UniProtKB/TrEMBL annotation, chain A:
<dbReference type="InterPro" id="IPR002541">
    <property type="entry name" value="Cyt_c_assembly"/>
</dbReference>
<keyword id="KW-0456">Lyase</keyword>
<feature type="transmembrane region" description="Helical">
    <location>
        <begin position="208"/>
        <end position="227"/>
    </location>
</feature>
<comment type="similarity">
    <text>Belongs to the CcmF/CycK/Ccl1/NrfE/CcsA family.</text>
</comment>
<keyword id="KW-1133">Transmembrane helix</keyword>
<feature type="transmembrane region" description="Helical">
    <location>
        <begin position="247"/>
        <end position="263"/>
    </location>
</feature>
<protein>
    <submittedName>
        <fullName>Heme lyase CcmF/NrfE family subunit</fullName>
    </submittedName>
</protein>
<dbReference type="Pfam" id="PF16327">
    <property type="entry name" value="CcmF_C"/>
</dbReference>
<feature type="transmembrane region" description="Helical">
    <location>
        <begin position="422"/>
        <end position="441"/>
    </location>
</feature>
Automatic annotation (TrEMBL), chain B:
<keyword id="KW-0349">Heme</keyword>
<dbReference type="GO" id="GO:0046872">
    <property type="term" value="F:metal ion binding"/>
</dbReference>
<keyword id="KW-0408">Iron</keyword>
<keyword id="KW-0201">Cytochrome c-type biogenesis</keyword>
<comment type="similarity">
    <text>Belongs to the CcmE/CycJ family.</text>
</comment>
<dbReference type="GO" id="GO:0017004">
    <property type="term" value="P:cytochrome complex assembly"/>
</dbReference>
<keyword id="KW-0812">Transmembrane</keyword>
<keyword id="KW-0472">Membrane</keyword>
<feature type="topological domain" description="Cytoplasmic">
    <location>
        <begin position="1"/>
        <end position="3"/>
    </location>
</feature>
Amino acid sequence: MTPALLGNLSVSLALAFSLLGLALALLAYFQGDGRFLRGARTLVPLAFLGALAAFLALEWALLTHDFSLAYVARNHSTKDPLWVTLVTPWAALEGSLLLWGLLQTLYTLLASKKALDPWRASLVLAVLYGIQVFFFGVMATIASPFEILASPPQDGVGPNPLLQNHWMMAVHPVLMYLGFVGLSVPYAYAVAAMAVRRYQTWVEETRWWTLVAWGFLTAGKVAGMWWSYEVLGWGGYWAWDPVENASFVPWLLATAFLHTALVQQTRGGFKAWNFAFVTLAFAATVLGTFLTRSGVLQSVHAFAEGPVGPAFLGFFLLATGLGLGLLSRVSREVRDAAAFRPFSREGALLLGAFFFAGWALVVVLGTFYPLLVEAFAGAKVSVGAPFFNQLSAPLGAGILLLMGVGPLLPWRRAREEALRNLYLLLGVLVLGTLLGLLRGYTPGASLALGLFLYNLAAVLLLAREGVLGRVRAGLSPWGFLENRRRVGSLVVHFAVALMGLAIAFSQTYRLESEKTLYRGEAWEVAGLRLTFQGVRALDEGRRFAVEALLKTDRFGEVRPRLHFYPQMNAPLPAPKVVYTPGNDYYFLLMDFDREKGEWASVRLILTPLVFWMWVAGGLMVLGTLYSLWPAGRPKEVKGVSPA
Amino acid sequence: MKGKYLLGILVVLGALGYMIFGGLGQNLVYFLTPSEYLQDQAKYQHRPVRLGGLVKPGSVRYDKDLLELRFVLTDGVAEVPVLHKGTPPGMFKEGQGVVVEGRFEGGVFQGRNLLVKHSESYRPPQAGWTPEDVRKLIEEAK
């Protein structure tokens, strides 16, 4: 038995089980026969085991340096440290597909455990099996992780050095895939709901899945931003690169869906919107993969291109067509339970969802526009970051505005006490913005400060309302913490406001300075005094490192580096970041005297509040986790009868 | 009632559409070769452009104390002088394909960002290369 044999066999088995499962699930639906459904359910763990075996086979091949596999030869080297080897399965396209397939079977396994009525269960399984068929089909044909090389090399080149430079890159892809794949479950439920014409309960049944997927997407995005900041050496965390956009769009649409789903859950409204948003959110994950893997757009993430573009485009069209096609067929029947007034919580939620969806539209247009221009006008253009920034600023501000008032508005229609709260909040917003202007911040940054304080006030008001409500009812105020959904959403909302503030300030104020220093020379910059004490070279086996020794008066010795990898012609900068609550000090070694080490060119980038971006990202994930935590969860009263 | 919502949605979509297409027009960054620039110089003055070509051998001057990199970008037919503030990137060398992001200020291209285009199949250009060949080489390089 070789890894290749085990791998190919396992992929084929996973594909066969998925195909058979799809057939049985469809039979169960069309024949209305429970025996087929039982059969389809039985195959779920088998497909999972097949995928798991294939994944382990790839790890086995990597750990035993089996360079007869093309994937191992291209992405592995005997010099790689163990942790790099273990995460190499998702360093390139074929392995990433395998990880995606494995996670898909895992989600299918978890989803199939939930008791469902046989009609919808068969369709949910059919959709999930269909997705599995696509992934394992692609792996079995055009992008096999277990392709054999006729003449294996002695040693490989190892994964892209950019991926080895920071441990975050080991985590980021897995988090993203867990998020992407997680959206497949609500999508499958939505398709089943539309097919069997039961439009209400699927949202409640998939709330957990949507939140889980959203939490992973958020964690994945923040991890990716952090990686970009700490590894790419340009001192930024977001470049509106197509790859970033590709994963931002599903996040935006999933966020829109989370908010309108809340209305359907509690008030039975916005059913058609929910079908549309969940379809688009899932389709966007596939579209994103098409964008990043097909090489249609030029991008810094050029290490992951392959022949799978057309396959993903076809799958995207199929997934979108299925969801929206079903919706157009049933849209006449989809009735909302309650009449809708704009000035109410549901009104704010819908408007917020429009902002998120509009933002997604902006990002998609900006990302695809160069393709259109190239196709129709023949000119090679790119859409600059200013376009995205100009449109994102008002959309983001609108979202922050709605986020504060929305949860304070009552359902159905706003009443007197709600209006009082509104005036209070608006006062905070105006005062906060004025405070910013008085301190000499730009109008944009001042507004961001106002919006942050306004959201902070809104969160405090909501918490106060919750606690007072319990006290009035003679209950312990601490019991408010058991309302996990409410508390979790407050934490996430606060974190979003904090992130908005951090983004506004770090984008507005940024100081960048570069200088060539000779040994012993001191440089006064940004309130810092640093002295260059020389360079030092280190041989680290898989790479060669050069570090500049910089003595600073505030942070002791700082050593930014350049890493020389044998598989790369150019050195990779390894910046040294010193986080402080106010500013980030980002030290980069740009160039050095290769003969005597007498001089070095050093760059310092000073960015405010970046530290709080990572805090906010952590809080968003923690808040989501708190909402999802099962222990001590109060029994929710199912107020809405199934439609 | 329905009409009012429809109107509201149309207004929002209209505003969004206006912002998107207005913004796109202003923020399009053209990718040019030196010959394309020389054909229509006025059009590309003072606006962001991505200029692609090869570093002309013998033209590179780098002052590490001022952190000023000067070189001439060529596509075999036309040439443009480039001034880039900052250190040359690792793979920067004569004859290499590069893309410079920046603006034309007068006759000199002021680079803000310098990207080296390197491909496995890269060959130094032979005599008789056309700007189109250079452009392809740069677009296909990673």
